[in-house]
Amino acid sequence: MGWMDWLKGKPSKPLAPGGEQAMPGGARDIYAPLRELIFADESLEGVARFVLEQEASGTEAKEVWKRLAKVAAQVAQGERRPAIEELYRLLEDEGEDARSCFQFWNYLRQLGEQPGPAVATRVLGLVIEHSRHGGPEILSAYWDGNARLMDASGDFRMFSDPAPFMVAAVRRWLRVCRPLAEGVVPMSGPRPAPPSGSRCRITVLTPGGLRTCEGEWDALWADALCGPVMEMAGTLTERLVAVLEDNGTWRSGVVPLSRSGGRGTGSSRVH
Hints:
- This protein is of the alpha+beta class.
- Helix content is 42%, strand content 16%.
- It has eleven helices and nine strands.
- A hairpin with a 4-residue loop joins strand 4 and strand 5 (147-150).
- It is globular.
């Protein structure tokens, strides 16, 4: 059982009867657990449970998850300093994985550590959510070149193992988010449910936290900070769709996830 398969059964938001996340109007959002993955903000306790369940099933957990489970145990035992030191070591060891870096910084902030000003606003990733076409749609991209795309029908695709030219392209696009990351304070409190109707939410992942802007679609396009991000996101989405149509110029990492919940395999290696 992989991390994604486990998390699909462990949505962190309140569930409607029947097991799916509640949506406005009483509809059920069966893709909510997949979306949770893109924010990389699973709790330490959730990681520890995942490792325990893997061990109980006879499956060897990845070393990074075992190390995070150790951190969770240290925190539970009040061993704050060793937990912090291990998280900093993880940042060094896994520093090319943008989502992991964001996750480690989440835990460090929870333990009272804060990134310096030059680090706090670094853009590690971008998530754009809206439901303008009748269902949740998502674009996410990360500094290591990986990306995710979900359309209104629920088709969810991961773009992994990016070729070097795609890493460079994604980083060039994500630099557009820097003014927004610097101009918006990190979100406090739990992450809200996805926007509905004609509303859209932009979320920038930074070591200092999630930095979000939400509003009507047209208003975000007209906003000085959000408009350039929206334009860039349109370009990035077109590129991802083109990858699907020409069968993989991203390289080998286009992984379709079927609506029945299955997943393919692909490398998360960063070039």
